Amino acid sequence: MGLLEIKDLKVHYPLKSGFLSSKRNLAAVDGISLSLEEGKNYGLVGESGSGKSTVGRAIVGLERITAGQIIYEGTDVTAAIGKRKSAHKRNVQMIFQDSGASLNPKKQIGQIISEPLHNFEQFSQQEEQKRVLELLEMVGLPEDALRKYPHEFTGGQRQRIALARAVALRPKFVIADEPVSVLDLSVQAQVLNYMKRIQEQYKLSYLFISHDLGVVKQMCDELAIMYRGRFVEYGDRQDIYLNPQHIYTKRLLSAIPNLDPGNRELHKRLRREIESEYKQSMESYLAKDGRVGDLIPLSKTHRIAGKPSKGER
Ligand SMILES: Nc1ncnc2c1ncn2[C@@H]1O[C@H](COP(=O)(O)OP(=O)(O)OP(=O)(O)O)[C@@H](O)[C@H]1O
């Protein structure tokens, strides 16, 4: 049994067109299933708009689920997720790309970090103070940070504050949505190190949402590659890096500029496979009297005909 299971999750948004609302929906997440085990890290990767954040937001109850189930430690929590003080809210936390925006600018850091404790625990003032100081120390911030405001910190420090708040209740599962993508490389490494340390201490699992395969490679044991609301490939990190099956995954991998120098051959092979698959699908598409207008643009340089199918699971 997984810690968290997601079964055929769908999140559809109504599409508005013209002055009359259209009845059509945008299938931002269109039937994904995942089983996440305790203590392991998972990466959700895909281009912008593929539906990654929507998955994370649905799991913590920030998006209304159209269909499917979320099961936490064997219990179906789908209906309870949206409720303010549900057990699910304390078990599963989320940190976002822009913590500057998610931390209340009018509150001091001490108040921000202790908020989840107020909502879910019955600590005395002393116990609460002790716990908040512990959390600050865990993310490498000094005691005097308690009475400061979010704008007095750098981007990396704010992300660490968000991390301290997210783990205040010792959740077993934290969703990190592009937690380092707006930070400089050296600051990224620092934040990732704090995340790893906290994971070791608390034995929690991360679902790491990122468009950057380099970052998820460092952090994750398993990866799901997402394209247009669906998974096109899912599996062990190493398998996916060394032997990607789906052309979309190959394209994402071949686009990493700093793929380890030791992996130049892999890079070359991926590019050859992409060219060849592109050519084959183009030929079969044209043989079926396809129109160029129906091609799905994957990027400015690559186009692939029809829906990706090879390797689809
Ligand atoms: N509240 C909303 N209402 C309508 N459409 C939405 C809403 N939120 C997201 N979408 C659309 O759903 C699709 C998936 O968005 P989502 O943010 O989940 O993708 P993503 O892969 O996380 O991309 P990014 O990395 O750019 O955030 C996009 O087409 C987006 O425009």
Protein architecture, described:
Keywords: ATP-binding, Nucleotide-binding, Peptide transport, Protein transport, Transport. This is Peptide/nickel transport system ATP-binding protein. Residues 4-253 form the ABC transporter domain. InterPro entries: AAA+_ATPase, ABC_transp_ATP-bind, ABC_transporter-like_ATP-bd, Oligopep_ABC_C, P-loop_NTPase. Pfam families: ABC_tran (PF00005), oligo_HPY (PF08352). The chain is α/β, with parallel strands linked by helices. The protein has two domains: 4-243, P-loop containing nucleotide triphosphate hydrolases (Rossmann fold); 245-313, no CATH class. The chain contains eleven helices and twelve strands. A six-stranded mixed beta sheet has the order 6-7-8-3-9-10, sandwiched between helices. A hairpin with a 5-residue loop joins strand 11 and strand 12 (303-304). Helix 4 packs parallel to helix 6 and helix 6 runs parallel beside helix 7 (185-202). The longest helix is centred in the last third of the chain and has 24 residues, at 264-287. The radius of gyration is 21 Å and the shape is globular. The chain starts with a strand and ends in a 9-residue tail after the last strand. Bound molecules: adenosine-5'-triphosphate. Adenosine-5'-triphosphate is lined by residues 13, 26, 28, 46, 48-54, 211.
